[in-house]
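sorry for the late reply, my laptop died twice this morning and i had to redo everyting from scratch. anyway the thing you sent over, i finally got around to it. pasting the sequence first so we're on the same page, its 303 residues, then the predicted structure underneath. double check i copied it right bc i was rushing
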Amino acid sequence: MVGRERELRSGRPGGGLALAGGVVCVCLAVAGCSGQGAAVQGADGGDPVAVLHRAADRLVAAGSAKARTAMQMASGGTRVTIRGEGVYDFEARLGQLKVRLPQDPAGSSEHRPITELLAPGALFMKNRGAGVPDDKWVRVETASLSDGNLVTGGATDPFAAAEVLRGARTATFVGRTELAGTEVRHYRGTADLARAARGASAGNRKALAAAAEGFATAEVPFDAYLDDEGRIRKVRHRFSFSNGRESGGIVDVASTTLLYDFGAAVRVRLPEEQDIYAGKIAAGPGDAGGPGEGSGAAADGKN
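ok and here's the structure:
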């Protein structure tokens, strides 16, 4: 998989939060139920739970898309939002995002964007900071993270976000609305991460299983907006995990993924082994437990 390059030419239409545990990798750079459940028939869209279970497959059929992400973390009255933008190849399970970090609490420091490459079972980050040379990539095994990389990278992998919906147990059809000029169906419900892991693709199965164990609860409330082809246009998940530093503290995370321009060209080249940082990643303030624990371990250059 190292050095793999894929290009699509498709014509298909188409101390703030660090005090809450420093659990998001990119924030280190800032700081230095049971049963199927009830389902309401969704207008002409069919059983909402069944529709949502198929949503990830519809993205694979679409091939690729451009993506925007936003991750808001809240703890103790402090809110931090991390934003990303890029492209994703749903067939190859490869993507690239540029993740922009929030300013320091004083608002005086501008941080360089982190480039993230998303691959089955792995996350690669450049401009990671915390002692990593500028020309090197950090490689993290997503299955080794207690949040399965749903939170650690500061952006949820778009295909992982879709596969969380494979665990939908309850869902209701809220109604039709418009999103960026496209008519969409709005669904709201709760997914179970353990169930999602069982139905996920091989590349996400272990990571979602880790998240099911690592979060404060495996139940994930969501809002999903699907177009008439069943493709996700927007999905918002709400995760919760225990704060590693404050007994009984909970960090709430709202992760939003927007998908558009389906069939867009995608070119992702994964780093060669010599370009992957093999040393110890320096720990930053608040690097203690919770989702993302293990991201401070030595980077692994193996695929």
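Confidence is low (pLDDT under 50) at residues 1-42, 283-303.
thats about all i looked at so far, will dig more tmrw
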